Amino acid sequence: FAAGRKSQKVRNIERTGRATVVIDRRETPYYAVMLPGAATIEDAMSEADQYALFSRYLDEEEAQRYVARSGVDNVAIRVTQERFVEFHGSAGT
Question: I need a labelling partner for 84 at 20 to 30 A (CA). Which of 23, 38, 65, 76 fits?
């Protein structure tokens, strides 16, 4: 995934070499997966790579605006998953 070169997220990974990716649903029934592992900071993503990533989540026009706004101040973060933690639940349980 991508992050700002000077973000707290990047500074933490540079310091510890670790990260946890969390994907969750915040409505009931709650569900989450956590993927902890070793993390590395890689070279800045090219505009083409940024567009390819952002266009997976945004329409074409929004992805182009996002790339123009983010410039080359992004880095790529690669997390090598070491475990898989899954949570199923609901309020009060």
Answer: 76
Distance from the Cα of residue 43 to its chain's centroid: 15
Distance CA 64, CA 87 (A): 35
| Full-model pTM | 0.72
Query: What b/e sequence results for 66-85 when a residue is b if at least 16 CB atoms lie within 10 Å of its CB, and e otherwise?
Result: bbeeeeeebbbbebeeeeee
Average pLDDT score over the chain: 89
What DSSP string runs through 14-56? HHHSEEEEEEEE-SSSEEEEEEEEEEEEEPPPPHHHHHHHHTT
Q: What is the DSSP code (8-state) at residue 57?
A: T
CA angle 88, 28, 82 (to 5 degrees): 30
Digit-coded pLDDT (tens) for 51-80: 898 899 999 999 999 888 876 678 889 999
